[in-house]
Write a structure and sequence with these properties.
By secondary structure, the protein is α+β, with helices and mostly antiparallel strands. It is built from 2 helices and 7 strands.
Length: 103
């Protein structure tokens, strides 16, 4: 609906700067979307980001920098889906904010 599209668009400003790709892969942001679900005094933010990388083999991983920006973040369930079917996942915390890609 138009209402949910507007809500998602408003969340974009909070989603900017929450993640940083690590490595020299020369990536461009293609698409980013955000959705928020609330339950009482807790909330869950779903962030989807698509990058186009000219040298994907040089990606080391993803750093979640949102812990520094918003102290309310407690943990992040992070999932990486690569173009060639490779995957990585981890629960990120303020003490462990890095999701490594590959071996």
């Amino acid at each position: 609906s138009e209402k949910s599209k507007k809500k998602s668009a408003e969340l974009e400003k909070y989603a900017e700067g929450l993640t940083e790709l690590m490595g020299d892969a020369r990536c461009d942001l293609v698409e980013r979307s955000a959705d928020l679900r609330r339950s009482g005094d807790h909330a869950a933010l779903t962030l989807s980001i698509v990058w186009d990388c000219r040298r994907p083999s040089r990606l080391d991983g993803l750093m979640f920098t949102g812990f520094e920006q918003y102290e309310g973040f407690e943990e992040v369930s992070a999932v990486y889906l690569g173009e060639a079917g490779e995957t990585a996942s981890a629960i990120l915390t303020p003490d462990s904010p890095f999701l490594p890609f590959g071996s």
